[in-house]
Amino acid sequence: MPITAHPAFNKACSYLKIKLRRIPLNPQTHEVDLTKMRRAITKNTCLLVASAPCFPHGAIDPIEDIAKLAVQYNVPLHVDACLGGFLIAFMERAGFPLKPFDFRVEGVTSISCDTHKYGFAPKGTSVILYRNENLRQHQFFALADWPGGIYGSPSIAGSRSGYLIACCWATLMTYGMEGYVETTRKIVQTARAIAQGWSEIDGLYLLHQPDVCVVAISSDKFNIYYLFDALHAKGWHLIGLQNPPGVHIAVTQIHTQEGVVEQLLEDTRQCVTEILQSNNKKDTVTAVIYGTNQKVPDKSLICDMTKLYISTWYDTNLDTSKDQNVPHVEMTAE
Ligand SMILES: Cc1ncc(COP(=O)(O)O)c(C=O)c1O
């Protein structure tokens, strides 16, 4: 899979003991290096992955090209449309045509799509689509001789909430085709306006032309994490990227409201001016964290610290009121 594919794949491979090969991007095109991807395929390869779009830079992988490899080497191809599935499906109708990314492309065998992102449904109902029933059959599990009766289960998660599924269905019906086309139009327009505005600010450049809803930038004039922290202080909660360093915004309905883009661009211009005037010498929290991360050659240390941090969410013995150094974190789904 391209290195930009979501860590959910690393996690699945870790659970299932599957060796994962991450293919770097071509530094010129910022697309996955197809020659390297081809070379990574062996007789043991069980799946290729493409994102539509990927989380870090918002780029849609060259799905038709990757699908050609899938067909040539007879390997299934999964398209991860978790992030933008409920946008890319409506982009053509919204006036932003895309290259084919789905089962129209020979070689694409499965697609995942998050209903809770641009489908606006509650979390816990995302879907996976298969090209045919044969493939889907492998997901189903059945046990005939259990004393509790004949057991059958369609998904990795066992018990699932009918309440959430009903809420998801209600959301889909409420928005309907017209609703999703309209939200897609506004979100993609907004993403492009932000990209245009950011790319006009001296010192900033786009990591990729936004294909869908994510706009990612970096800087050749200052440490981009300074901008991350400066915008955070103004109330903009963006995402910090690494390898290469960057910052992105995933545009949602909130950003499509009147005046929001203008405010973001104005705040960005102000922050960039201040950073350049401060002579690029601010020690901000995010710059220090990512700077330290880069200096630690053994990344397992960072992973251990991350796991330790997660365990504090569950540790009921911690009295955080007494110890100011223990971070209090709201548990999130991601
Ligand atoms: C591109 C992409 N793929 C997959 C996922 C889903 O990961 P998970 O199933 O672990 O929530 C996300 C969630 O943010 C995503 O952005």
TrEMBL record:
Q: Matching Pfam families, A to Z? A: Pyridoxal_deC
Kindly give the Gene3D superfamilies that the UniProt entry links to this protein. Answer: 6.10.140.2150, Aspartate Aminotransferase, domain 1, Type I PLP-dependent aspartate aminotransferase-like (Major domain)
The UniProt entry lists membrane topology as: Single-pass membrane protein
Which top-level enzyme class is recorded in the Swiss-Prot or TrEMBL entry?
lyase
GO BP: carboxylic acid metabolic process; sphingolipid catabolic process
Q: Which pathway does it take part in?
A: Sphingolipid metabolism; Lipid metabolism; sphingolipid metabolism
For this entry, the protein name equals: sphinganine-1-phosphate aldolase
Q: Which family does it belong to?
A: Belongs to the group II decarboxylase family. Sphingosine-1-phosphate lyase subfamily.
| Compartments in which it is found | Endoplasmic reticulum membrane
Assigned keywords, A-Z: Endoplasmic reticulum, Lipid metabolism, Lyase, Membrane, Pyridoxal phosphate, Sphingolipid metabolism, Transmembrane, Transmembrane helix
Q: What is its main location?
A: endoplasmic reticulum
Which GO molecular function terms does the record list?
pyridoxal phosphate binding; sphinganine-1-phosphate aldolase activity
EC assignment = 4.1.2.27
Cofactor(s) needed by this chain:
pyridoxal 5'-phosphate
Q: Which GO terms describe its cellular component?
A: endoplasmic reticulum membrane
Residues modified as N6-(pyridoxal phosphate)lysine = K117
